[in-house]
Specification:
With 229 residues, this protein is of the alpha+beta class. The chain contains 5 helices and 10 strands; from the N terminus they run H-H-E-E-E-E-E-H-E-E-E-H-H-E-E. Strands 1-8-3-4 form a 4-stranded antiparallel β-sheet, with no helix packed on it. It has a 4-stranded mixed β-sheet with strand order 2-7-6-5. Helix 1 crosses helix 2, helix 2 packs across helix 4 and helix 4 crosses helix 5. The termini are far apart.
Length: 229
Amino acid sequence: MTAKQIVESALRIVGVLASGEEGQPAELQDGLAALNGLIGSWNNNSLIIPSMTERTFALSNKQEYTYGPGGDFDAVRPMSIQYAQFKDVTGKRYTCENYGTRQWAELNYPTTMRSPGFYFEQSYPLAKVKFPYLPYLTDVIVFQTLEPLSKISSITQEINLPDGYDRALKLNLAVELAAEYQGVLKPETVQLALLAKKELEVKNTRVESLTFDFTTATGFYNIIQGPMK
């Protein structure tokens, strides 16, 4: 499916185009701008991202790396890093914790061991990955990332996304364009747009397994207070 088909379908839902009618160049360009705005907004919602991407990068003799097009880690700037591992020359992997802001501020690790984690700073246009000290140069870092949906460069561009995205884009773009064209959509149409987006969020929900450190338990365990004697 092309961006043109999505935009024209949305314009028909709004009532700007009749059945079988093609959009004028100005209408199509306005629709494309609105579609890219919608995609940009959706990229702030991790549940709209359909899959995680694995990225592997070599390490050098420094603790801070830029991440994004043209950066030290030259790839799409991720929305978030979900998981990371170091991999040594034998292929053995070591978990690398993703520190929160407070953890990073309070770090006080020795400098003679493999870095136990990293801090991901959402700076722009290049993000930053920081290690508490110099990583092993023989290691590579393997990230599982959530990368944004790509914006569309031309109205004729093909859009390849999993099932359900074309419907959600058409309906939600119609809601966006209705405001621009001062149109009034039926309540059922707005509800369908919300439902189509919600279906994507449900489909992309990533359920994490809960773990329990039995070595710290000495008797009963309270979910709020922790181990209890």
